[in-house]
Amino acid sequence: MEKVRFAIVGCGEIAVQTAQGMAEAPHAEIALTMDIELALAQDLAQRHAGRATSDFEAVLADPAIDAVYIAVPHDLHAPLAIAAAQAGKHVLLEKPIATNVADAKRIIAACAENQVTLGIAFVGQVDADCRRLRQLIAEGLIGKVVGIRYAALADKPAYYWHGGYTRRVHTDWRISKARSGGGIVIMNLIHDFNTIRFITGLEAVRVFAEYGTFATPVEVEDLAFATLRYDNGAIGSVEAGSAIRGGSMEAEGDRIFGTHGQIIIGRRPRVYSLEGGQGIAANEWVTVAAEQPSARYNIVEGYATALLEGRQPPVTGEDGLKALEIVEGIYRSGETGRPVTLPL
User: Fold this and answer.
1) Do residue 66 and residue 132 come from a single domain?
2) What is the distance, to the nearest Å, from the Cα of residue 241 to the centroid of all Cα atoms in its chain?
3) Judgement on whether residues 93 and 235 belong to the same structural domain of the protein
4) Residue 283's domain spans which residues?
5) pLDDT at 250 over 80
6) Three-class SS of residue 55?
7) Angle at 329 between CA 327 and CA 333, to 5 degrees
8) 23, 271, 297, 309: which is deepest, by most CB within 10 A?
């Protein structure tokens, strides 16, 4: 079976999960791991019978590498992705695509100019539940989408800012606005922006936001609220916080409101429809959940098969850009106190 030979660049927290997805994906192979902390690269290589290095230039020069998966601090996404593209390597890039829209466009341009395929490690487009929800909305099950509620409410532990959730790597990039690009909005909520775009097919055209840092000794925001307007006239509300003491009591996730029903997006998505159809009973909540592989498996296998078949990956650079535009719109609005028109 033909496989895409990956180099993993950045062997911290999320790379461990992605490496497991690569190991399980039939069309992917871990050929090399790279981190400036060699011990991290060696640890990941030993888990998956790969080679390890601390030299990024060695990755670019290695003819055995087809594609690089980049999972480094956000400010390094642009320089490393552009260098990989110029070396002729395909690029699977962790979210966010970059810390700002200008750098995102530079990455997209570099990949296009060097005829390599750029993919972004978002889940929505490769998730079976999200694809099912997209189909139900397209078929009119909940009528016209008129409202969207985003809720990313977390109580991140103090150690997260210097070690992530697993404390695999001690670092301070998450607390820096310049290095991370921001806090809860760019680190977490950007996933939701991509997922809702995919499920509804709607694009945000205006955003007004307020945000601040209230309970965390960092440069980035730990609380943000925003209102969005969409190209079909729908309204969105955003609630995001990383210092919500006690966390959120609503574990159900984001909601999509339609004229004839609504959808709750979470670990087990649910649908309510006045008229029903497509296997969904009318006037009652119905769970829509498919048995499927892990999210990281789906991301890797979706990208690898697209690469081997010479087609567009499930999540493109443009998808990454569109999600980032909403994020940057929130930050610009919060800084200026004015609504921001999208796209930027």
Assistant:
1) no
2) 17
3) no
4) 125-292+324-341
5) no
6) coil
7) 125
8) 271
What CATH number is associated with residue 255?
3.30.360.10
pLDDT at residue 328, as a whole number: 98
Average pLDDT score over the chain: 96
Question: What does the block give as tokens for 111?
Answer: 């990949």
Quote the pLDDT of residue 269: 93
Say if residues 35 and 10 touch (Cβ distance below 8 Å).
yes
- DSSP element (H, E) containing 34: strand 28-34
Q: Are residues 129 and 72 part of one domain?
A: no
Same domain, yes or no, for 246 and 309? no
Comparing CA positions, the residue from 239, 185, 229, 227 lying closest to residue 203 is 229
Least confident of 94-103, 234-243, 251-260: 251-260
Cα–Cα dist 90/337, whole Å: 40
Residue 49 is predicted with a pLDDT of 85
Torsion of CA 20, 128, 119, 96, to 10 degrees: -80
Q: How many domains does the chain have?
A: 2
Indicate the pTM of the whole model.
Answer: 0.96
